[in-house]
Design a protein that fits this description.
The protein has 171 residues and is an all-beta fold. It is built from no helices and twelve strands. The chain has one domain: Immunoglobulin-like, CATH 2.60.40.10. The strands form three sheets. Strands 1, 2, 4, 5, 6, 9 and 10 form a seven-stranded mixed sheet that branches. Its main location: membrane.
């Protein structure tokens, strides 16, 4: 059965949200529902990027049949989380060609969620103190929309605590 034939039936739509990722890094685009399927075997969902097949889950199993070659060995999900209604997509080794619209379709629940991925070059910061090594960047941002039951989590760089300027507080 061809999954894209179901698209006109979707009635739970959301506004498109933007995510920023960096060349060579990974990005996690979270698409979840509070109403998980009755059984993992009933799950049918797919991820699309500008109408290209990124990733499919058919009857609870990953299906790479028809997957666009651009995403082979770079796109993954979290199978242990399917039973919780979590169908997050992780894209590894981001490339300029990854920018654009990503859509998560949860077929049996008629949920469609769109995201705009913006891919930027990493900025190299010059250190004024040559005697210390730069610390790795920590990341985490999470948004929730309880009205739709769809959650979005993505990662963006944040400064390490020792580089924060006065006026910012640590908690």
């Amino acid at each position: 059965m061809y999954k894209d034939q179901f698209l006109p039936l979707f009635h739970k739509l959301s506004l498109q949200e933007s995510i920023v990722g960096f060349i060579g890094d990974s990005s996690v685009i979270e698409c979840s529902t509070r109403q998980p399927e009755l059984t993992v075997q009933d799950i049918i969902m797919c991820w699309r990027h500008n109408n290209l097949n990124v990733y499919d889950i058919i009857n609870g199993q990953v299906s790479v049949e028809g997957q666009n070659q651009e995403y082979k060995n770079r796109a993954e999900t979290f199978p242990d989380e399917y039973k919780n209604g979590n169908f997050s997509l992780k894209l590894n080794n981001l490339q300029h060609s990854d920018k654009g619209r990503y859509t998560c379709y949860i077929i049996r629940q008629s949920i469609l969620k769109s995201f705009n991925l913006i891919v930027k070059e990493k900025q190299v910061r010059e250190s004024t103190n040559q005697g210390t090594k730069p610390r790795p960047k920590r990341t985490a941002i999470m948004f929730a929309n309880s009205a739709t039951g769809v959650y979005l989590k993505f990662h963006v760089p944040v400064p390490s605590p020792n580089k924060m300027r006065s006026g910012y507080s640590r908690t």
